[in-house]
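Customer ticket, subject: "Can you confirm the structure for PRC-barrel domain containing protein?"

Message body: Hello, I'm evaluating your service for our small team and ran a test protein. I'd like someone to confirm that this is what the system normally returns, since I don't have a reference to compare against.
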Amino acid sequence: MTTDSPRTLVHLADSDLTVKTEDDVRGKEVVDRNGDEVGTVDDLVIDPDELKVRFLQVGSGGFLGLGEKKQLIPVDAVVKVDEQVHIAQHRGHVASAPVYDPSLVPQAEYYEELYGYYGYPPFWAAGYAYPPYPFYL
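Agent reply: Thanks for trying us out. I re-ran your input and got the following:
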């Protein structure tokens, strides 16, 4: 699809970067286009060179953190942020997304597969337009 590889992305929690409190979506519930719960934003996956959020890390299921499933959702899927984070997809679509293992560092192919699955061009593609607020640091 593209010729350029993405830069290394990092979790906000693993960096020394911060988000303004009023713009921070971590801890907010994520809901699908029907208002059904998808999970909770656990962390933000960022591009430290451009200071942009690329993915929301969303945790769902489990009990007290045990058995919780992690998903990465491109910020491009977010349509609104209020008390919740609203995404354009159905909950089942997110649940069927390519598996994310937070203990592994995803490769460019994984990111490209993820963007393709959600139907968005990857952030390194020619002509990519970053979504507007609230996804900047």
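A couple of notes from the result: The chain is about 10% helix and 30% strand. The domain at 10-118 is CATH 3.90.50.10 (Photosynthetic Reaction Center; Chain H, domain 2). Feel free to reply with more questions.
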